[in-house]
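Thanks for the sequence, V.! I ran ABC transporter permease right away. Repeating your input here for the record:
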Amino acid sequence: MNILVDSVLKKKIQIENRKHRRGIYYLWLFEKISFALVIAYIVLFPIYCVATGEFVSTNMRTGELSYFLVAMLTSTFGSMGLAAVLFIYVLRIRLEHTFIG
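Predicted structure:
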């Protein structure tokens, strides 16, 4: 069974799908850049803290350096960043299924 579709309508649908694909591509690109920035933060922030002594405290009794604050900040902000990237990923997948799908 063949369904006849108006060529103008078909062209409009193709243009609309192209617009949605472009937006989804930009969302995909934003997701990948965000993921790369979060991973770079997780790797480079502790190195920065150790090199500069920022967020490194000294134990008053033993005199040893404590990196608790460095670990806490890295894990907290890293996990929030990864959660944001996961949210962007889920949003992109949902939009793909809705618009192109």
